[in-house]
Design a protein that fits this description.
The structure is a single chain. The chain is built from 8 helices and 12 strands. The strands form 3 sheets. The protein has a 5-stranded parallel β-sheet, with helices on both faces. A 4-stranded antiparallel β-sheet has the order 6-7-8-9, with helices on one face. Strands 10-12-11 form a 3-stranded antiparallel β-sheet. Helix content is 37%, strand content 21%. The protein is α/β, with parallel strands linked by helices and 239 residues long. The protein folds into 2 domains: 119 residues, Rossmann fold, CATH 3.40.50; 94 residues, Arc Repressor Mutant, subunit A (Orthogonal Bundle), CATH 1.10.10.
Length: 239
Amino acid sequence: MPATPPCKQILIVDRDVAAVEPLRQKLTDAGFAVRAIADGGAALAAVVDRPPHLVLVDWSMPGLLALEWIQGVRRASVPQPVRLIILSALSGEQEVVTGLNLGADDFIAKPYSLREVVARVCAVLRAHAPEERRPALCCDELELDTTTHRVTARGAMLTLSGIEYRLLEFLMLHAGRAFNRNQLLAHVWGDDRALDAHTVDVNVQRLRKTLSEPGYEAYIQTVRGFGYRFAVPTAPPWN
């Protein structure tokens, strides 16, 4: 069974920590480890001391100008590149162009949709993820090949829709860990804001139906009152 990968670290740098609390909670619900710091100088020190994977930085924070702060992050000696997204009430073309030219990976205007921010955080992290060949995800004789995107059960290929494949891949990657519907929406569906939690239930049922013929539907477990997880039953479902 594959080990659960560590959470991505997100740092929010904004002068009003209370105002960004809903965003911090939304990112936490999506599976990230999130810190929020109100002072620019303290935040820059935190980046050097414990580098996050991505920073959401307010354009108008105290302590340092955001532009200088971005340059400071880019000059910092850290073991991994830190991705940067600017949050700003100033959304004119000049501000956007300046921020991106200085090294920001994205620019999000305030007020923003929480789901949109989560989706764009995921998109930036995906875009800069290292390219590597991952081993196939296997559970008994159910195998998901992350390179060819083929799923087989006891040697026979299964036909899955794109959403079914991404849902199964995400759950198998985090086998044993339960996710609520909002977390699954953020990780599997990304930036489609027209969807709601019912979409998750419908597609879980479709995935179970696809897995039912070879006898693997019980691997997609319902965590009552919370959400879903991929977990191997104590006894094979075909016995």
